[in-house]
Every structure is written in C-alpha cells, then in structure tokens.
Design brief:
This protein has 484 residues and is mainly beta. It contains 7 helices and 24 strands. The chain is elongated, with a radius of gyration of 27 Å. The two termini are 34 Å apart.
C-alpha cells in the first residue's frame, strides 16, 4: 500500500525587491546552494509508544513484565502466544493516555542552549481480542477453536506527527522524549494453541517509510523575484513495511502446576522510520522569461536522510508465578539491540550506542467480591491492584562525542487499579494507570560546533563544554474494557 503526492511550487513575480534588499537576496541564494552540505536532520527518539509506556493498562501497571502473563489484548505485543489464554468471545478496551516529560539538559555558563519543556504525548488507546470460539465456525472447522486474535493501537491526538528538522548534526537533543511520539502505533497478532501446555503466536507492526525525490533550481538572473528565483519540485512517496512479532508460551504439562507457572519468550523486530529520505539535485544558473532553465551548473547529487523514530530489535524472556489464585508475580528480562542505531545520516553515533538488558518486575492482587460484600462493593465482582518496577540502562555511553544525544539510566515505577462491574451478559472493567519515569542525573562534556553556537549567540567555536541532564516523565491513563 502506498500513497504518492507531488508538489510543484512556482514563484509569483508580482513584486520586486528593493535595491537595499538585494544583498540579503544574494545571501539567501547562496545559502540555498549549501543544501547538499546542510541536509536536514529530524531528531530521533524511541518513536514507538508501546516500547516506552506499554501496550495495555494491565501490562503497563505491572511494569511491562508481561511476557509470561500475556492474558489480555496486549499479548499481541508482549507475546502473541498468550492470546490463546483469552476465553471470552470478545473484549474491547478504549482509553486515553497523557504523558508529560519534564527532562532537562543544563549547560552551566551557556544557558542559552539549555533544553527544557518538551511537549506532552497524549492520545487514544484501543485494544481488541477474541478467542474466535464462534459456534457456527467451530461446527464446520473444529480446529479453528485453537486460534485467537488480538489488536492494540495508539495514536497522538490531535497531532498525529511532529518532528523538528534542522541542519546541525550536533544539535543537543534527547533520545526518548525530545518530541511527541510519532505516527500510529499498531500491532495485529494471532495465537495458536498447539497443546494445553504449549502455544505459539505471530504478529505484525505496520510502519511507514517516506521517500522523496527533490529537484532545486536557483536562477541567478531573477534576483527581483519574490523568492529570488528558487524553484523546488518534490515527489514524495509513503510506503508501509512490516515489523514481525513472534511468541511462545509454555506451561507445565502437569495439571497441578499448569495454572501456577508459565514461561514466555517473545521476539520483536527493529522499527526504524525515515521522512523525506532520497536524492537531492541542485542546479544554479539562468532561466528565460517563461521560467525555463537555459544554462547552469549542476552540483553533485546529495541525499537527505531524516530519521524520525527508532525502536531496536528486542527479545524478552519472562516467568510468571501464581502462588495462590488471587496473586500473580512476574519477571521479564529484555535485550535491546541499540548497537544498530544510526543517526539521520545513516552513520553510527559518536560515541556508538550499546546493547542493553532491562529487568522488569510485576505484581497483581485480586480481591474477589460477592453479594455479601458491604456497601457498594456488593455490586462489583472484583478489584485488582497492580504494581511494577523496571530498571532500564541507557544505550548512550557516558562520554563526550560529536553527537549530542542525551539519555540516562531510568527507574520506572507504575501502579494501576481495576474495578470490574458484572451484568447478565458481560463484564465491565474501569481502569486507572499511573507511571513515573525517573532519569538518573548525569553529567559529561558536550560538543558544540561553531554553526550551532553562532545560531544561539554564544562565544564558542567547536568546543567541548559541560552539560548536566536528567528529569522525570509522568503518565496518567484511564480506560474502559468490556468482555463477553
């Protein structure tokens, strides 16, 4: 599936520049000729919302230690094999999430380039899952009972996409929370029960790659033109590609342990997006009265590569224990291949990133209620309390380099509350979620080149200067789920 659009911009010659303004026109015209050298940068960040904040309210509240639990719609991201644990015909979750970053980078003595006040991410969340146990279908295809289906999606609203383009490679920015999370986060998966103790699953994360073919012509004999003779033609194409997800869920074959212990394994592929990636052709010369080039010089073809999001390939292994029927303990270990990260010019960052291991812990306790419960509690079937913690080391080394990418080790605490209201045909869950990311304070030297320093009016020319960074990110969410 692809979408193409072509922009043709032709200058209007309804106004002339004054003689005093012509020197500025010459400067801008020369700046246009430097575009092959100063190709655009879009700041990279984690990009995929689920990787940072979770793909479900229960999973996020349990610190995303969900690979071996995987018993609701969010299993399609954490472990598609777990979808086979869904016994209802259908469940649907709809919620809202708001994430507020309060991260900072402080340059002592050079406060003009301090980084603060990142925009929030907010949007709608949807989760769908089904056991596919439809009576009419099972009657014809008995094996269909072994399949299950799940989907989760999240998108920023009202801004679906936001990124920043600029010409300076050493521009200071944060790896994770420099801008809003971009594009639609979507996962679609299926699970299959091989035996009562073994399930497998697979899914797909659709993502978008944007390609551009740009042609620029600067007419030096049109300095009286309102845009100084610049002609720009862009052909842009958006293509969808798929990131794979695979999972395995194992339970002991012995009846007494099958509901008390489970092991999970999940693989998720690398998700990397570009915007406007492609060749850039530059010409400078003269044009006739009809706007057609008649002579000129062609500059070497350059390439614009704007990396707007990156989520590394990762493998998660999980263990879930249920010491008694009302409690669940979970642990996950996740490996992330950050060593494959490339900057917007498709070059390794300086210094290069390192692979990371993330440890996650989760807890759930269920209070079962009945009609003998006091007051309003008698109208509820259960109350679930959840908590979680994980420690994620940063992939960014703590040493100076030419790429000013800031990130630090983070401690993530989460908690959640679910209240279930039953009726004759279905159950209704009302959920609340709180998550806090604490980035541990770090300090190091940052490289500030002369171009960036000049833009901000600070007396620095290609120097290393001290920087301190850290901060927190707060996430709040509310959700409604119905099941039948």
């Amino acid at each position: 599936m692809s979408e193409s659009r072509t922009l043709e911009r032709n200058a209007l010659r309804h106004r002339s520049l004054t003689p005093a303004a012509r020197p500025a026109a010459v400067v801008l015209l020369l700046a246009a000729l430097l575009l092959p050298v100063l190709s655009g940068e879009a700041r990279a960040q984690t990009g995929f919302f689920f990787d940072e904040f979770g793909a479900g309210y229960k999973a996020a509240a349990m610190g995303q230690a969900f690979t071996a639990v995987a018993d609701d719609y969010s299993a399609c991201y954490y472990n598609p094999a777990g979808l086979t644990q869904i016994r209802g015909i259908f469940e649907n979750a709809s919620g809202y999430l708001y994430a507020r970053p309060e991260v900072y980078a402080h340059f002592p003595g050079n406060e003009a380039i301090d980084l603060r006040g990142q925009p929030s991410s907010r949007g709608m969340f949807t989760g769908i899952a089904s056991s596919l146990d439809l009576e009419e279908t099972i009657r014809v295809f008995p094996w269909f009972r072994r399949f299950s289906f799940g989907l989760v999606s999240w998108t920023n609203l009202p801004e679906i996409m936001q990124y920043h383009a600029g010409p300076v490679a050493s521009r200071p920015h944060f790896l994770r929370h420099d801008l809003r999370f971009q594009l639609l986060a979507l996962v679609v998966s299926f699970g299959f029960e091989v035996t009562p103790w073994l399930s497998v699953g697979a899914g797909a994360i659709p993502s978008v790659e944007s390609l551009a073919d740009q042609h620029n012509f600067a007419a030096v004999n049109k300095t009286d033109d309102v845009v100084m003779g610049l002609r720009l033609s862009i052909h842009q194409t958006a293509k969808v590609f798929v990131v794979p997800v695979f999972g395995i869920l194992i339970k002991p074959p012995w009846e007494g342990l099958r509901d008390r212990v489970s092991l999970g394994l999940c693989y998720r592929g690398e998700n990397k997006n570009h915007h406007g990636k492609g060749p850039l052709t530059q010409y400078v010369g003269e044009e006739d009265d009809n706007g057609e080039p008649v002579s000129g010089i062609a500059y070497p073809v350059a390439t614009t590569i704007n990396l707007i999001s990156f989520c590394p390939r990762q493998i998660s292994a999980g263990l879930a224990l249920r010491p008694f029927s009302h409690a669940t303990l979970s642990y996950d270990l996740t490996w992330k291949e950050y060593s494959t990260y490339r900057t917007y010019l498709e070059l390794p960052p300086d210094p290069p990133f390192s692979d990371t291991f993330t440890h996650r812990l989760g807890l759930e306790y269920v209070f079962a209620l009945d009609k003998d419960s006091p007051w309003i509690l008698k109208h509820l079937s259960r109350i679930c309390l959840r908590g979680g913690y994980y420690y994620e080391p940063t992939p960014v080394p703590n040493r100076a380099g030419k790429d000013n990418i800031f990130d630090s080790d983070q401690d993530v605490f989460s908690t959640g509350l679910t209240v279930t209201v039953p009726d004759k045909t279905m159950e209704h869950d009302f959920e609340l979620l709180l998550q806090v990311h604490r980035f541990r304070p770090r300090s190091r030297a940052a490289f500030i080149d002369g171009v960036y320093a000049y833009q901000h009016g600070i007396p620095i020319r290609d120097q290393f200067i001290p920087v301190e960074f850290g901060g927190t990110v707060w996430l709040l969410g509310a959700n409604y789920t119905m099941r039948f």
